[in-house]
Backbone:
């Protein structure tokens, strides 16, 4: 069992930055792949970024590549999403996810989400 709690969302102007954090509780955190998904109003949840259990491999959606950076600190049981050059279309609820298999993150554990709003 893994419990995930996101934080760090808020309101920011276009071009600004935010860093999201996701703190995990439970055993074997370092053996889980982690990811961030987002859901904008009226849209389906979509993948944003993921990171392998050891942190050596990262993956990004084309829409965030070059602007967002995912990282993890296994000693702190935390995964981060650094978001730079934010755009209004990045406005969404951002969710943290965990699964043993990176390709099945959408079938794993989920946090409650944190709202990110980017004003133009």
Residues:
């Amino acid at each position: 069992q893994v419990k995930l709690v996101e934080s760090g969302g808020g309101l920011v102007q276009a071009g600004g930055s935010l860093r999201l954090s996701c703190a995990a509780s439970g055993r074997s955190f370092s053996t889980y792949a982690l990811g961030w998904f987002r859901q904008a109003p009226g849209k389906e949840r979509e993948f944003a970024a993921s990171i392998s259990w050891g942190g050596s491999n990262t993956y990004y959606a084309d829409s965030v590549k070059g602007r967002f950076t995912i990282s993890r600190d296994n000693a702190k049981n935390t995964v981060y999403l650094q978001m730079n050059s934010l755009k209004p279309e990045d406005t969404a609820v951002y969710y943290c996810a965990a699964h043993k298999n990176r390709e099945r993150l959408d079938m794993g554990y989920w946090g409650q989400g944190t709202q990110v709003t980017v004003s133009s």
In short: Residues 37 and 47 are 4 Å apart (CA to CA). The longest strand covers residues 18-25.
